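On clarity, I found the account of how folds are encoded harder to follow than it need be. Since the whole study asks how a given chain folds, the encoding of that fold should be made plain. The format is easy to grasp once an entry is in front of the reader. For illustration, here is how one protein appears when written out as sequence plus structure tokens.
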Amino acid sequence: MKIGIIGTGYVGLPTGVGFAELGNTVVCIDKNENKINDLKNGKITLYEDGLEDLFNKNVKNGRLKFTTSMKEGVSDADMVILAVGTPPHPVTKEADLRFVYEAVAEMADYLTRYTVVATKSTVPVGTGDQLEQIISEHNPQADFDVISLPEFLREGFAVHDFFHPDRIIVGTNSKRAEDVVRKLYEPFDGKTHFLFVKRRSSETIKYASNAFLAIKIHYINEMADFCEKIEADVLEVAQGMGLDTRIGSRFLIPGPGYGGSCFPKDTMAMACMGRQNDTPLTLIETAIEGNRSRKKKMACRILNMVRDISSPKIAVLGLAFKDGTDDCRESPAMDVVAELLQSDVSVTAYDPKAMVTAKNLLSNKIKYADSLYKAAEGADVLVILTEWKEFKNIDFERLAQSMRRRKIVDCRNMLNAEKARRYGFEYRGIGRV
């Protein structure tokens, strides 16, 4: 099949690479000429584990192409996938659909045969109706169906998740469109759950799923605070809760709050939709506010460790919002650093993959190191904010020799607290005694 994908970000590029690997001809479309030129020249523009090898393979065999031309990418396509950004509106915080509407309006003129237009961008309920109207107005002769095809790729694991989906949700009432989708996803037949639902149900599923997971993270963070007060261990509590199959263990991991490209904007958009429809979503509203204050609490916890030190130096490990990605959008780590910088402190940071991205956002407000031990040199406190695996294997003896004072705030509970204390560190985790 010929697939056109509009957008080459953290959804569009892994999706394009994945469909090319399955044997389809994929044309990725983006208005950013510099990005397209980089991709054409074999320079991958984001980090995802396992993506680069598949990218190079499929560019080389000609199944994966890149263009700034909407006509080139859309004409004669069996399916066009919308994977453009839907950032929060700066005032209302609802999903801003400008880029989606612009892409669809431009695309409409080039629909020359029956085409399924699939929305992978996370869009408010009812957007599919608007897209149908836009296409019909711009090209009354177009033969098409608009479907909702939400993505469930976890950043850092997008390649794995593409080839091992736990479900494929399709929102359509068109048998013709359903047949196209089934043909495209034929390699997954019998290997995952297929659910064909109404388009508005599909649009809701994505928001409802992300909001629920955000609430779960907020819940375990509040439980971690409670455990600290009553001298319980939140990791043991989470383990006991997770053994209940009705609850499950995933996302019961306390930390500095949720972040990234999805949870913050999707919870705000979902809450906005609730207000617009006179159905306040109070659990989501509470999770949003709690997550905002979580980052401030973590910053206060760190500053309390150095409150008696003049002009303290803080070493930060991790700037990406999670491990496995270089994405710093709405990163709890970045928010905590921003809070720290409001005090008289010096911050030196290290992240295995996100240094370039972080520098673009923070500029020279902090210092940067090329290893965790370089970041720790002369530091008064070491802070872990992102759960990169390499941080788990810290050499405490080497760390003790590098730091000015032996203090650790482990906001991801990655380290062995007992071992750290044996080396003379004052160690504080999250929700643990």
Summary: The chain has two domains: 2-197, 198-433. Residues 96 and 111 are 25 Å apart (CA to CA). The chain has a mean pLDDT of 95.
